[in-house]
Amino acid sequence: MKAGWETSTLGEACELLNRGISPKYLESGGIQVLNQKCVRDHKVDFTFARRHDSHVKKVSEERLLRAGDVLINSTGTGTLGRVAQLRSASSEPATVDSHVTIARPKQEKFHPDYFGYLLIGIEDQIKQAGEGTSGQTELARSVLANNFTIQYPTSTSEQQRIAGILDKVFAAIAAARANVEKQLSNSQKILERNVENSLMEQGWEMTKLGELCEGVDYGSSTKSVETGRVPVLRMGNVQNGAIDWSNLVYTNDEREINKYSLNHDDVLFNRTNSAELVGKTAIYKNDMPAIFAGYLIRIRRKKAVLNADYLNYYLNSTFARSYGKTVMSSSVHQANINGSKLKNYPIPTPPLAEQQKLVEKFDELKQSTQALSRVYRQKLAVLDDLKQSLLAEAFFGD
Question: What is the pTM of this model?
Answer without folding.
Answer: 0.69
